[in-house]
Each structure stands twice: as structure tokens, then as C-alpha cells.
């Protein structure tokens, strides 16, 4: 049968041979490719270890990589998971999918940004900032606290990303941890009453403010930084600096996957990611604040020392997150 | 020498729960023109398709020239090896082939020699020489008809099955072609099985007429016998 | 080499392979999910029903509108003497080359430009509109193709008796019923399983719900089980289609190759042309202009940067989607051939139909996760750690489209063409290659090109299953896009679009050469 031959050919097309480098490391990352790729390339250059990376984006809510690690749990493929925030590594930790590793490079990083049993370690941090459109808001009209968003004058003008996902979900969880359930829920309901605009992602908050579809909103420093580069009409500020509440700091977090196939190289990559060099690179490329003391950063990049951080235990907040997800989902659905 | 070309014995055919042919037995004589006459839905086309092997019978036997070709749910001889030609109601001329290629295709597939000679020869017989390079859509109805017949006969079948091939032609051309068929029958030594719902058409060419109704043979015989039949259905059928 | 009567063994083998590689992983995952199913309540909750209902309503509107426009434009473009018909025929297809997500973004920009900060358009309406814009080309192609295959004599006999308008409504439209249904079903499923557009506009439907279960709750079992309602929807659709068509044999109506009948609706021709031009401007020109304008906003550098970023991914993407398209096409063809030509085997035919439709309707994330769960084991290492997993993903997802296009077209070719060849002793493969294929060449071309284009642009499954360390075009665009400036994003999209366009043009040229070779009468004066 002619088909049969044709099909044999097709099936062999399927099994395209794959070259396999033995000196390699597989990393999944939810940090946007523009920023993570140069770092990983640098690691390749420095160590000669081939990096096989799987990128995902904040926009995709990291469904790709995180769910993939979960789906692959019976036969792990990934060595290192580099997350843009601590929540996702904690999700993995709680499911027993990570293994502890204490990197020598983690020594100088403040305790608050590390897991006490070394399942994950934080580095370069972003902050949650208020981004606003200068054409629509100026002077005293600019909100300086996340609690301003519930005021009448911002009715229908504030954009936040869907609180079920990404850094926004963590932000809300942090609020629940710090404020307590009741007050935090009240805050959410006040937001709702004030016709808050829910977008699909932080990047979308940025776009809405850029275009003036929203006057202000909550987003991450990297998005805000990008927006400022793109247009003169927008600016950002760190919220709650005058009331002592503080602004949420979100470090990157890295962990070693349980049963990782290239553990040795995985540890090397983690050491590299936690180095000052990488913090410097990320400060330059996406305005992330180094957690090591004394890393030189370009001008205009905020520094951790100058910001009053929100006092929050990341493991607790992540635990809180899993508890409030269902409530959040309801909240979103009732908008 | 055997005198029957086709023997159908106790044929049952249907699909799902529908029985189209019920216990039909019929003999078709060699070198004669047999007309199968029936209204639409009587099963007459199905009968042709059973003879040709395009449909598989549930029960019974089909014999061609004394050889068993199909039996109880199985085709023993495939359609192309039964030595027959089939003129479809819609003629089934391949629209993307020229007349030449339509006629030549079967010969080439069968790896016969002198394809060109044979095609030209048959085209001459049917007066199609000037049309060989044309596509079916460029022909008149009568010409299409002739191409379909030429395409079958070039493969030298012993039996020609025709399924209401003249349904769409005007009376004058129809008569021309009917005469042609009668001539062909003797020239090519053919057994013709001709399906129609038009008894006038049948009577003008048939040696034997078989009236079919509801998947059964109502009556068969010569033209005269059918004309004088006492069968109620036959009488009713001939009236309209 | 096989007799004249096809045993269909080859066809069944192809389908068996499809079932093993594409369907089995999904079934396996369903079984596993059933085990870990934590909250069966989600399936039967009021909330689920509301979402499902919303999904169905939106899809129903999208499918109806697309098919409606498909009939109108298909008729004007393929059946009347309208000016620039060829230009529009090709131009209409362009939106298919741009991913739905991009169009959603571009449309929200447009709407914002047009309406400013005023009363916002309802997100549901916007979703329906954008999806309609995206899928109408598919309908135009399917229905238009069917229009051009109608046997002229059927129309002419009608024209002798009554006005052209009546002929259109009483004869022509009923004759293309299968195509209308095919268009409706395809678009319906596309819309039901589409995630990016409703998600972008914040419309909650069943796919966004499934996505939330994955990405906010990391609950695979619930997400997968929730997607099973789509299986139910698929089966219901097929039952409905079956009821409506009830396997009517009258469908073999066209004797193709006859010169097409064209109507001279002089009175409405101008209206038609205006309408078509308007549609073209609205759905093709405006989004394209916005894209081009945005990508050149900062001059050429961003365009070069986009080239730089995507250069390495283009070839791999082409290879992978080509392999996928081949498998899709062969499977679609085999299934269509079996369904149209094999006698009996009703159950097998239904099985083919349901299998392909189900995989097509499955949300990409669920398909991707199923593949990971199934293929991520040492035995399948060859598949899982290479591009094969992506190819199989495309194969699973898009076979139904090829199948539907080909089936629909094959049904229009009289069976007697094949039977006449059987009587002459033409072997099966020659009947397929020399008789059937040339007659349905436009559909063959369409089936392949859709398989190619959809595979080339597929994001959801690709991003879930592609091996680490590899770059595929849509994934790269998507991952870079997240933090890129608008002009870079637009540049990348424009590049992706251009590559697809070149692809279509190359395939089209190939088609023209082929149809010349076959001497298809339709291309002769």
C-alpha cells in the first residue's frame, strides 16, 4: 500500500532525532524571556554548561511552566525553576516538588527573602508600584497609597490585574496576611464598589494607563519602568511610604526541583542566579533591586534601602493565598 | 455453449433494516438485449449494481457466464474482472479528462497495448474523432452519451449494463442512440442489460423484458408477452 | 498492489495511528483525572452551567454570523460577476494568518480610538465581533467552494422556471447545506475552545474557567474534568448534524468541471461590492494598517530587532508545522475518504468524526497537559524531548479541519466517477490520485494550507509541550511580547504575518502548477 510507505515516512518525521548534550541544565522560568535569556546566556558562556530553557510570561500567568512541572512530577525534566515571585516556588514546595539547597551565594541575602529550610531563595526584587497617567492625574490628585484607590475621586479610574493570578494575587494575599481577613475583604469590597477595572495582566494595566483608559493602577516595577521608557505621559511611585504601611517587595525566587536530572549543574545555575553579577544585570535590564548589599546599580533604579517595605512573611502569605483563592475567585466573578 | 449470460438466484439485498431486493431470481440470455422495467424505487438500478459487483448481496448467488461471481454476502470476483461495462445514469465521464483520456484511461490502467490505435478506432465507430481533444463539458448530450458507451466498449466487455442512460436526451437523439445500441449488440457480440422506467424505450430495443416491482420480478418475457400480460401491476405500469 | 475494491486497511491504519498517538494520551489523562477528581461539584454547579451556557451562546452567535457572512460573501465572490473577486477571495483570508490574541489587542485599540473613553462596548459583544471577524474567512472559503461546485444544470433548470433570487434560495442554498453546516460546526468549535479573545476582554466562559483552574489553583483533575463538557458539546453537535443531514445520498450533486454558473444580479451588484469592500477595510485593512503603523512608529530599528529575535525560529517552526500539516492532511483525507466512500461501517465513521472533533474542541492547555502526563516517561523519551510532541499536538488538534473540508468536498463529487473507474479496473490509489484528487484540488489545497497555517500559528498547545531550549515562532513572539514595547510587538506580529503570507503564496503557486498539470478544465478558458 502506497499509504503505508507514506505513513512510515511521516512517522519517522515524527521521531526527529534529538541531539542531547550531557553537560546541560534545564531551567523553567516565568521571568520574561527578554530579561531571563541574557542571564542564562551569560551562565552558558561562563560555565560551558548548555542551558535548555523554557520560557513563560507573566501574561500567561505562568500556566505553562508551573503546570508543566506539576504535570511532569512522575518523571521530572526540569532542574531549576526560576520564578518571578516567591508564590510559585512555595506552591511547588507545598506539593513536595522541590528539594532544599543552601547556596553559598545566599549568605548575604536577608533572611526574610529566603525559605528557612532552604527550599527556595530569593534574589533581585521588584516592587508593587502605583503607575499613573500624568495627563489625567497630577499634583495632589496622584494616589500615594493603595488605600487611596477606594476613594470616591478614583471611581472607575483604577486598574488592577486579575487578583487570581501572578503578582497581584500575591499582593492581595500579603494584604490579607498583614491586615487580617476582615479588613482585607472590606478593602476588596470597597474597590469593587469603586468600580475598579480588572485587566488580564499587569502588562495590561500598564497599557491601559498608557492609553488613558485608566488613570492609575497597580503594577510591577518592571512594567512601570518599561512604560516610562515608552511614554512621557506616565510615571510611577512606591505606595504607602508616608503611612508606614510600606510597599510590597517581591523577590525573584529560585528552587531546585525534586528528582532533577542534572542536579549538579542545577546547583551551579542556582549559585549563578544568586550572584551579585546577576542582580546587577537584572537591575540594569529591568530595574530590579538587588538583595545583596552594595551591588552597583544604574542611576534611577530604586534601591531597597530607600524604600519602606511591607512587613510580610512570604511563606505565610503564600499559605494564605491558597486559602483565599476561592474567595478571590468569587470576588472576581461577582464584578 | 451456455445460453445464459447472467443468472441471479434467490438474491436478497438491503441496508440496515431496509430490504431492497427480496428473493429475486432472474436469467439473462446471452447476446440479447434485456430491458429491466420498473418505477423508481423498484430496485432496478440496484439490480444492475449487484450484477456489476458495486453492491454486495446479503444472500443468493450471482453467476456470470456460468461462473459464480458473488455469493451470500461476498464478492468472489471483483467488478473489473466480470467482463462488463457500465453506463451510469449520470454517465460519470471524468470531467477533468479529455474525451481521449476518458476512453484511454481504462486501457492504460490495464496495461493494454496499442492504446492510441484502439481509442482512435472506437472513436471512429462512434463518430467522435473530432471530439477527442475536448472536455466532457464541451460536448452535447448525445455526444457525452456516445463517449460513455465508447469508454466502456473499448475494454471489450461481453456484457453492457446501462442505467437509464437516455433519461435526459431529446426524442430524436434518443432514437438514434437506441438504434446504435441495437447495432452495437450484434457488432460487438454484446449482452445488453438496459434499465429504464420508460416502457416505450424498452419495447423498441428489447429481446426480453423484465418488469420489477418492490424488489421482486413481477413478470418477464418477450415484448409481446409483456404487452399482453394479465399481471395487474404490469397492466397498471404500461398504462401511464 | 491492491485490487480495485479498496479494503480500507490503509485508511484504517492511518486512523489507528492517529488514535494511538493523539487520542490515547487524552483518554489516559481523563482516566487519571477521574481518580484525582477532588470536587465533582464543579461539574454540576450552577456556576458551571452558566459558564457553559455563555460559551455556547457566544459560539452560537459567532458561528451563525460567520456562516451568514460566509454565505453572502461566498455567493458574491464565487457566484456573481463582481469586480476584483479574486483579489477579495485572497484578501479575505488574511485575518486567519494573524493569531486571535493579536487581533483582540488590535481591535480593542481600534474601538478605543473610535469611541474614546466614552461608554465602553460590552465585552461580550466585542468578543463575538472579533471572533466573527477572525472566522468569517473560513466560512467564506468553505461555503464559496461549495457554491462553485454546484452542477450548473441544476441551477439552469431552475432559472428557466423562476427568478434568479428564487433559484438562489430554493435550489442553490439547499445544495450547499452540507457546507453551511460544516462552516457552522467548525466556527462553533473554534469559538468554544478559543481562550485568548474572551480572556483578553475579560469575558468569563468555560475555557477561561478551565484556565483559572490550572493557573490559579493548579488543580489538573478539576480542570481536565471540566473540559469534558466540551466532549458532550461535540457529540451533541454531531448528533444534530447527523439528524439534519441524515446521511442523505442526494448530496452527490455536483458534476464538477462544468463551467460555473454565474449570476448577473446587476441591481445589487454595487451594493454587494460596497459591502465587500467595507468588510475588507474593516477586518483586513484596518488591523493591518494599525499593525504597520505601530511597528514603524519608532522607525526601522524595532523591525530589525524583531528580525533578529525571530530569525532562528522561523525555519524550525516551518519544519514542525509542515510535518504537522502533512500528518493532519493525510489523516483528514483518509478519514474523509472512508466516511464518504466506504459502504456501511457507520460506527467507525462516527468514531472518526467524534474523535477528531473532540480533540479539536479540547482547550489547548488540557491537550498539552494530557500530552505531558502521557508522554513524559522514559519509553516515549524520543517523542517527549524532541519536536515530535509538538507535531503530534498539531496533529491531534487540527485533523478535524482537514477532515471536514475534504469530506465536504468529496461529498460533492458523484460516487459514479469512482465506480466507473472501479468497473474499468482502476486500482484504489489511482482512483484517489488521478480521479478524486484533481476534482477536489481546491479543497485539497485548502485543507493542507489551513493545516499548515493553523499549526504555524498555534500557541496554546505549543507553549505547553514544546521542549526546553527550543524556539518556535509563536511561542517566541508571545514570550518576548510580554515586556516588549508596542512597536516591537507589532513588528514581530507583522513578521509572523509576512512569513505566513509567503507560505500561502508559495503553496498557492504550487496549487496553480498542479491544477495546470492535471488539466483541470476549471482553469481553462
What number of domains of chain A?
Answer: 2
Give, in order, the helices and strands of chain A: HEHEHEHEEEHHEHEHEEHHH
Structural class of chain B: alpha/beta
Which stretches of chain B are poorly predicted, pLDDT < 50 over at least 5 residues? none
CATH superfamily of the largest domain in chain A: Periplasmic binding protein-like II
What's the rounded overall pLDDT mean of chain B? 88
Radius of gyration of chain A: 21 Å
CATH architecture of the largest domain in chain A: 3-Layer(aba) Sandwich
Count of individual beta strands of chain A: 10
Helical residue percent band of chain B: 25-40%
* Strand line-up across the major sheet of chain B: 7-8-9-3-10-11
Biggest beta-sheet profile of chain B: 6 strands, mixed
Overall morphology of chain B: globular
Q: Which overall shape of chain A is indicated by the principal axes computed on the Cα atoms?
A: globular
Mean pLDDT of chain A: 88
Would you give the CATH topology of the largest domain in chain A?
D-Maltodextrin-Binding Protein, domain 2
- Total helices of chain B: the number is 8
Distance between termini of chain A? 60 Å
What is the makeup of the main sheet of chain A?
A: 10 strands, mixed
Order of helices and strands of chain B: EEEHEEEEHHHEHEHEEHH
How would you characterize this protein structure?
- By secondary structure, chain A is of the alpha/beta class.
- Chain A has helices at 2-14, 33-47, 63-71, 86-94, 166-179, 181-193, 202-211, 221-230, 263-273, 276-286, 314-333; strands spanning 24-29, 50-55, 80-83, 98-99, 121-133, 158-161, 197-199, 216-220, 234-237, 249-257.
- In chain A, strands 1, 2, 3, 4, 5, 6, 7, 8, 9 and 10 form a 10-stranded mixed β-sheet that branches.
- In chain A, helix 4 packs across helix 11 and helix 5 (166-179) packs across helix 11 (314-333).
- By secondary structure, chain B is an alpha/beta fold.
- Chain B is 34% helix and 29% strand.
- The mean pLDDT of chain B is 88.
- Chain C has helices spanning 9-35, 41-44, 46-79, 85-91, 100-115, 123-147, 152-161, 164-175, 177-193, 196-200, 206-215, 220-245, 266-295, 301-341, 346-361, 364-375, 381-384, 388-410, 415-424, 428-439, 441-457, 460-465, 473-481, 486-517.
- Chain C is globular.
- Residues 1-5, 247-259 and 521-525 of chain C have low confidence and may be disordered.
- At the A-C interface, helix 1, strand 1, helix 2, strand 2 and helix 3 of A face helix 1, helix 11, helix 14, helix 16 and helix 17 of C.
Amino acid at each position: 500500500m502506497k499509504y503505508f510507505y507514506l505513513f512510515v515516512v511521516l512517522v519517522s518525521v515524527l521521531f526527529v532525532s534529538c541531539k542531547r548534550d550531557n553537560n546541560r541544565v534545564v531551567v523553567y522560568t516565568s521571568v520574561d524571556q527578554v530579561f531571563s535569556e541574557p542571564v542564562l546566556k551569560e551562565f552558558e558562556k561562563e560555565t560551558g554548561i548548555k542551558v535548555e530553557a523554557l520560557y513563560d510570561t507573566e501574561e500567561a500567568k505562568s500556566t505553562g511552566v508551573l503546570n508543566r512541572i506539576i504535570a511532569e512530577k512522575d518523571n521530572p525534566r526540569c532542574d531549576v525553576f526560576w520564578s518571578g515571585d516567591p508564590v510559585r516556588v512555595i506552591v511547588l514546595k507545598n506539593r513536595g516538588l522541590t528539594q532544599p539547597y543552601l547556596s553559598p551565594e545566599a549568605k548575604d541575602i536577608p533572611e526574610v527573602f529566603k525559605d528557612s529550610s532552604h527550599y527556595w531563595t530569593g534574589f533581585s526584587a521588584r516592587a508593587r508600584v502605583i503607575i499613573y497617567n500624568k495627563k489625567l492625574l497630577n499634583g495632589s490628585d496622584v494616589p500615594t497609597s493603595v488605600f487611596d484607590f477606594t476613594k470616591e475621586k478614583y471611581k472607575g479610574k483604577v486598574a488592577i490585574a486579575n487578583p487570581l493570578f501572578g503578582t497581584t494575587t500575591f499582593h492581595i494575599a500579603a494584604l490579607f496576611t498583614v491586615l487580617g481577613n476582615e479588613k482585607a475583604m472590606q478593602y476588596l469590597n470597597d474597590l469593587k464598589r469603586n468600580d475598579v477595572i480588572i485587566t488580564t495582566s499587569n502588562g495590561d494595566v500598564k497599557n491601559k494607563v498608557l492609553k488613558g483608559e485608566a488613570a492609575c493602577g497597580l503594577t510591577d516595577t518592571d512594567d512601570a519602568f518599561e512604560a516610562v521608557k515608552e511614554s512621557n505621559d506616565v510615571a510611577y511611585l512606591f505606595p504607602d511610604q508616608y503611612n508606614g504601611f510600606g510597599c510590597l517587595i517581591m523577590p525573584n525566587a529560585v528552587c531546585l526541583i525534586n528528582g532533577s536530572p542534572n542536579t549538579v549543574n542545577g546547583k551551579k545555575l542556582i549559585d549563578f542566579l544568586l550572584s551579585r553579577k546577576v542582580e546587577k544585570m537584572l537591575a540594569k535590564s529591568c530595574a530590579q533591586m538587588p538583595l545583596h548589599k552594595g551591588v552597583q546599580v544604574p542611576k534611577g533604579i530604586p534601591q531597597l534601602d530607600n524604600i519602606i517595605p511591607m512587613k510580610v512573611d512570604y511563606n505565610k502569605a503564600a499559605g494564605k493565598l491558597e486559602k483565599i483563592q476561592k474567595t478571590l475567585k468569587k470576588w472576581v466573578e461577582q464584578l | 455453449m451456455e445460453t445464459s449470460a447472467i443468472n441471479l438466484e434467490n438474491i436478497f439485498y438491503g441496508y440496515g433494516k431496509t430490504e431492497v431486493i427480496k428473493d429475486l431470481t432472474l436469467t439473462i440470455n446471452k447476446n440479447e438485449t434485456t430491458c429491466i422495467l420498473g418505477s423508481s424505487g423498484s430496485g432496478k438500478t440496484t439490480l444492475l449494481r449487484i450484477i456489476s459487483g458495486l453492491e454486495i448481496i446479503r444472500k443468493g448467488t450471482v453467476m456470470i457466464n456460468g461462473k459464480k461471481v458473488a455469493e451470500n454476502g461476498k464478492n468472489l470476483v471483483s467488478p473489473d474482472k466480470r467482463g462488463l461495462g457500465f453506463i451510469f445514469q449520470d454517465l460519470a465521464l471524468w470531467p477533468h479528462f479529455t474525451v481521449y483520456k476518458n476512453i484511454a484511461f481504462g486501457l492504460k490502467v490495464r496495461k493494454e497495448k496499442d492504446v492510441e490505435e484502439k481509442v482512435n478506432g472506437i472513436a471512429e465507430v462512434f463518430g467522435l474523432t473530432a471530439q477527442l481533444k475536448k472536455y466532457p463539458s464541451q460536448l452535447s448530450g448525445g455526444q457525452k452519451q456516445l463517449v460513455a458507451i465508447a469508454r466502456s466498449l473499448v475494454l471489450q466487455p461481453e456484457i453492457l449494463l446501462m442505467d437509464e442512460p437516455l433519461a435526459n436526451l431529446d426524442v430524436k437523439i434518443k432514437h438514434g442512440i437506441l438504434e446504435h445500441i441495437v447495432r452495437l449488440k450484434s457488432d460487438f457480440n454484446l449482452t445488453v442489460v438496459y434499465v429504464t422506467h420508460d416502457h416505450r424505450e424498452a419495447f423498441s430495443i428489447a429481446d426480453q423484458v423484465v418488469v420489477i416491482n418492490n424488489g421482486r420480478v413481477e413478470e418477464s418475457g418477450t415484448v409481446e408477452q409483456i404487452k399482453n400480460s394479465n399481471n395487474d401491476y404490469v397492466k397498471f405500469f404500461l398504462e401511464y | 498492489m491492491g485490487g480495485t475494491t479498496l479494503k480500507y486497511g490503509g485508511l484504517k491504519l492511518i486512523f489507528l495511528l492517529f488514535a494511538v498517538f493523539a487520542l490515547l494520551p487524552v483518554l489516559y489523562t481523563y482516566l487519571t483525572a477521574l481518580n484525582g477528581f477532588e470536587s465533582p461539584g464543579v461539574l454540576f454547579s450552577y456556576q458551571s452551567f452558566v459558564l457553559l451556557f455563555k460559551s455556547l451562546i457566544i459560539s452560537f452567535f459567532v458561528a451563525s454570523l460567520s456562516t451568514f457572512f460566509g454565505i453572502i460573501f461566498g455567493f458574491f465572490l464565487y457566484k456573481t460577476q463582481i469586480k476584483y473577486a479574486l483579489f477579495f477571495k485572497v484578501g479575505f483570508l488574511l485575518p486567519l494568518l494573524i493569531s486571535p490574541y493579536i487581533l483582540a489587542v488590535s481591535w480593542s485599540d481600534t474601538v478605543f480610538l473610535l469611541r474614546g473613553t466614552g461608554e465602553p462596548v460590552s465585552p461580550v459583544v466585542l468578543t463575538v465581533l472579533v471572533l466573527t471577524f477572525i472566522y468569517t474567512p473560513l466560512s467564506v472559503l468553505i461555503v464559496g467552494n461549495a457554491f462553485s461546485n454546484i452542477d450548473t444544470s441544476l441551477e439552469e433548470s431552475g432559472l428557466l422556471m423562476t427568478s434568479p433570487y428564487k433559484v438562489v434560495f430554493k435550489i442553490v442554498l439547499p445544495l450547499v447545506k452540507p457546507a453551511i453546516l460544516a462552516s457552522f460546526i467548525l466556527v462553533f468549535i473554534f469559538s468554544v475552545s478559543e481562550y485568548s479573545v474572551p480572556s483578553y476582554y475579560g469575558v468569563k466562559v468555560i475555557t477561561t474557567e478551565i484556565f483559572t483552574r490550572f493557573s490559579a489553583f493548579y488543580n489538573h483533575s478539576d480542570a481536565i474534568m471540566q473540559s469534558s463538557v466540551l466532549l458532550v458539546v461535540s457529540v451533541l453537535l454531531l448528533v444534530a448534524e447527523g439528524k439534519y443531514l441524515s446521511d442523505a445520498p442526494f448530496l452527490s450533486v455536483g458534476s464538477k468541471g462544468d463551467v460555473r454558473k454565474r449570476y448577473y444580479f446587476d441591481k445589487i451588484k454595487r451594493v454587494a461590492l460596497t459591502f465587500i469592500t467595507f468588510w475588507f477595510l474593516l477586518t483586513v485593512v484596518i488591523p493591518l494598517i494599525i499593525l504597520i503603523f505601530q511597528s514603524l512608529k519608532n522607525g526601522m530599528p524595532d523591525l530589525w530587532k524583531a528580525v533578529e529575535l525571530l530569525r532562528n525560529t522561523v525555519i524550525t517552526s516551518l519544519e514542525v508545522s509542515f510535518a504537522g500539516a502533512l500528518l493532519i492532511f493525510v489523516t483528514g483525507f483518509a478519514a474523509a475518504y472512508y466516511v464518504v466512500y466506504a459502504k456501511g461501517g457507520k460506527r467507525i465513521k462516527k468514531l472518526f468524526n467524534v474523535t477528531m472533533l473532540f480533540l479539536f474542541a479540547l482547550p489547548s492547555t488540557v491537550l498539552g497537559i494530557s500530552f505531558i502526563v502521557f508522554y513524559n516517561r522514559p519509553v516515549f523519551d524520543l517523542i517527549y524531548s524532541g519536536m515530535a510532541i509538538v507535531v503530534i499536538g498539531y496533529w491531534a488538534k487540527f485533523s478535524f479541519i482537514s477532515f471536514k473540508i475534504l469530506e465536504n468536498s468529496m461529498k460533492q463529487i458523484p460516487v459514479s466517477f469512482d465506480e466507473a473507474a472501479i468497473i474499468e479496473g482502476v486500482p484504489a490509489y489511482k482512483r484517489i490520485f488521478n480521479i478524486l484528487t484533481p476534482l477536489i484540488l481546491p479543497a485539497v489545497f485548502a485543507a493542507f494550507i489551513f493545516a499548515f497555517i493553523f499549526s504555524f500559528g498555534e500557541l496554546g498547545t505549543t507553549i505547553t509541550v514544546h521542549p526546553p531550549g527550543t524556539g518556535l515562532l509563536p511561542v517566541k513572539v508571545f514570550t518576548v511580547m510580554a515586556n516588549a514595547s508596542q512597536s516591537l510587538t507589532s513588528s514581530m506580529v507583522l513578521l509572523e504575518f509576512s512569513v505566513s503570507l509567503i507560505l500561502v503564496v508559495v503553496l498557492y503557486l504550487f496549487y496553480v502548477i498542479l491544477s495546470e498539470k492535471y488539466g483541470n478544465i476549471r482553469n481553462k478558458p
